[in-house]
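The record is given unchanged here:
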Amino acid sequence: MFLRLTIGLQTLAAFLSAVTAGLLLTTPNGHVLHSASAYTVWVVAVVQLIAAVLVWRPGGGSPRAVLYAVVFLGLVSVQVVLGIAHVKAVHVPLGVLLFGLSLVQLSRPSACLPPRGRSRRPGRPASRVAA
């Protein structure tokens, strides 16, 4: 549940970053809002990684969520560096890719569920509901 919430926040933050990018082009202080939204996306990506590790290790979930979170955090870090360097030719398409990746992850219903037939707690058999 917490993992699903962080993916939702990540998607919302990526969307708001795109909105503030539009403000960057139309208002004199748009860069402040866009910078704040960019760092918000980065912080949410770190929280997403922590949540994915907690679901995987003690929770018995899939390690795929951790892989996704690591890749997303890496791409967001590159996105922040490109934004600071004003490399718009790569920054804008990468932003669209990040929002799309986040939407895909949010739309996957099994992204936050433990593998079938496996207990969430090591050493205990899986319940009949999970099997």
